[in-house]
Amino acid sequence: MRIVLVGPPGAGKGTQAAYLAKNLAIPHISTGDLFRANISQGTPLGVEAKSYMDAGNLVPDSVTIGMAEDRMEQADAAGGFLLDGFPRNLGQAEALDEYLKAKNLTLDAVLDLEVPEDEVVKRIAGRRICRNDSSHVFHAEYNKPKAEGVCDVCGGDLYQRDDDREETVRKRLEVYHTETEPIIDYYKEQGLVVTIPALGKVEEVTERSMAALQRGK
Questions:
Q1: Residue 24 falls within a domain, yes or no?
Q2: Which residue ranges make up the annotated binding site for AMP?
Q3: Structural domains counted in the chain
Q4: What is the pTM of this model?
Q5: Residue 39 lies in a domain
Q6: Would you call 189 helix, strand, or coil by DSSP?
Q7: Residue 200 maps to which CATH number?
Q8: Does any domain span residue 147?
Q9: Annotated binding site
Q10: How far are the Cα atoms of 29, 47, 76, 96 from residue 100, in angstroms, in the given order?
Q11: pLDDT by residue for the chain (217 residues), tens digit each?
């Protein structure tokens, strides 16, 4: 299957993508992983992306599209893939359609993870990270540490990242509404969008997604 996963920041796309890709036996292709891999390997696209990033500029769509197309060409993606974070705007969605058309391929579904905006803010703004190890993550409401401000694992200080502050989260949501939401309408016109309520346990959301994909076959 060839799937695009969309949803606002804090919807749990990365977590859901990993579970779905495993269940469907297809690679999970995320924009973040693409950038890290290309930059660390020093590919021409990675070098170009790094030059923009080092200058504090946005990486052009053409670079992101090139990375995604290179990844979709790899052998493990021959039987399908799950795209997470790409496409993120109409230009990228149109480029993906052109790429697939040239390969005589089509998308099977676009899964839209739906989460109320206030819940998104609560999820992200409540995160607390350990200064000693960023993999130790807690939440002010959903996963409280035993002692406030102290990591249960190593005793390090917990802090809130600047990116997780409420005002920053709301700005990120504005960007999502402006840039990414239009692709949902674009794919609705193609009859591809399946809206998945993304509240509840991770496993429940995965089950809803898998059931929707099965119905769509």
A1: yes
A2: 31, 36, 57-59, 85-88, 92, 161, 172
A3: 1
A4: 0.88
A5: yes
A6: coil
A7: 3.40.50.300
A8: no
A9: 10-15, 31, 36, 57-59, 85-88, 92, 127, 137-138, 161, 172, 200
A10: 15, 26, 16, 6
A11: 999 999 999 898 988 999 999 999 999 999 999 999 999 999 999 999 999 999 999 899 999 999 999 999 999 999 999 999 999 999 999 999 999 999 999 999 999 999 999 999 999 999 999 999 988 999 999 899 999 999 999 999 999 999 899 999 999 999 999 999 999 999 999 999 999 999 988 899 999 999 998 886 5
